[in-house]
Amino acid sequence: MLTMPTRANPAATDALKINRLLGALLGGVALSAVLSAGLAQADTVPAGLTAAEVESARGIASALVNQLGQALKTSITNDGPVAAVGVCKDVAPSIAANLSSQHGAQVKRVGTRVRNPNAGVPNGWQKEALSEFDLRLAQGEKPADLEYWRVVEGPQGKRELRFAKAIVTQQLCLTCHGKPEDIPAPLLEKIRTEYPQDEAIGYRVGQLRGAVVVTRALGSDR
Ligand code: HEC
């Protein structure tokens, strides 16, 4: 997989700087060509994003996935899966809220099918991102490569970043999102009691489960 240039990779950073200059001179075309050469998901990274903006959005999404994954594993190990339902219910939104306020962004998880209809339903662009991911997964792309980037004109003419990072079902997730007949009865009962409208069940490993979505106002000074 191609990776983002970082400080540890001065050649790539220099190349990016030069190419950003070129991009500024020649418009979006040169920048996207450069991004294709130097960054993962290049063809979908819109012209006009800085490397820092890209890196920051990626950082927010992976922080959510990592912190939640850690909390889930710890809770399942220490208290069992029935108690871990509470992690998904309370800890997931609080991690997302913390990251949102830390980074001046809106961060959340959405699902292809949804357990909590108050929190996890994708809006228009998020649905578009999910169908794009489904297609790309079917074409054999690696889950880790599935990113969606758009810059749109938001409220008050400010540029707005819309970023989605795919969440693909892993073994651990099947405990609570697998086939109903594979879920232990007390856990299934807990899920059904807490989430009478649950649709986030019946997933298989490797299937698209949803996405972390980040919406953020960008500086308009460029
Ligand atoms: C212990 C049970 C449990 C496990 C294990 C679990 N989840 Fe969930 N998941 C839930 C619950 C409960 C919710 C609803 C949270 C809420 O109230 O917002 C949820 C919600 C979600 C959502 C938000 C969309 C929706 O359906 O409401 C996503 C995305 C998600 N889970 C992905 C995963 C992934 C990926 C894994 C594996 C890494 C996983 N979950 C493991 C119980 C679990």
Notes on the protein architecture:
It is a single chain. This protein is of the alpha+beta class and 222 residues long. The chain has two domains: 9-38; 43-217, no CATH class. Helices cover 50% and strands 15% of the residues. It is built from seven helices and four strands, in the order ααααβαββααβ. A four-stranded antiparallel beta sheet has the order 1-4-3-2, sandwiched between helices. A hairpin with a 5-residue loop joins strand 2 (147-153) and strand 3. Helix 1 packs antiparallel against helix 2 (28-38) and helix 3 runs antiparallel to helix 4. The chain is globular. Heme C binds at residues 69, 72, 81, 84-85, 88-89, 92-93, 109-111, 114-116, 119-120, 167, 169-170, 172-173, 175-177, 200, 209-210.
The helix fraction, in percent, is 40-55%
Write down the overall mean pLDDT: 82
> Oligomer, anyone?
single chain
Total helices: the number is 7
**How many beta-strand elements?**
4
Structural class: alpha+beta
Sheet with the most strands? Answer: 4 strands, antiparallel
Strand order of the largest sheet: 1-4-3-2
What overall form do the CA principal axes indicate? globular
Element string (H = helix, E = strand): HHHHEHEEHHE
Cofactors, ions, other ligands: heme C
Terminal residue distance: 30 Å
Backbone CA Rg:
19 Å
- How many independent structural domains? 2
Q: What fraction of residues sit in β-strands?
A: 5-15%
Uncertain stretches of 5 or more adjacent residues: 1-43
